[in-house]
Amino acid sequence: MEEAQDVTHAEEKVVNISLKDLAKKLEEFAKARDWEKYHSPRNLLLAMVGEVGELSEIFQWKGEVDKGLPNWEESDKEHLAEELSDVLLYLIRLSDICGIDLGDAATKKIVKNAIKYPPKAC
To answer: Can you give the residue ranges of the NTP pyrophosphohydrolase MazG-like domain (predicted)?
Structure first.
């Protein structure tokens, strides 16, 4: 019964969810399965690299693709979404385990890059 509720809950459409909300969900997910002992920074990084490899395979022989992937089958887009999500979730979990506020770090990096690479004058 609990598994059915988890699946139903997981299938609910989430519109706006923060990185912190995702980190909390991932922490709860790991705790419920007693996986925390496996979630060391090294293990999470290696798992994420594996997922990046799976993501790379999707594009490996396609050459350049147009924005929005207009020529892709819906099933290929769904597969891409799954692999992108795997990478994102491992990145969020890794940052949480390392005590890094990823949202804050990313915001600071954007500001830093804006200074380093100013817009071109028109």
So the answer is: 40-112
29: exposed, middle or buried (Cβ count in 10 Å: 0-12, 13-18, 19+): middle
CA distance 77 to 119: 33
Cα separation of 42 and 39, whole Å?
8
- Residue pLDDT, tens place only, 80-108: 999 999 999 999 999 999 999 999 999 99
Structure tokens at 69: 């992937």
- Those residues whose C-beta lies under 8 Å from the C-beta of residue 94, and which sit 6 or more positions away, are 41, 44, 45, 48
Q: What is the pLDDT of residues 68-82, one digit of tens each?
A: 999 999 999 999 999
80, 58 contact by CB (below 8 A): yes
Cα dihedral 88, 89, 90, 91 sign? positive
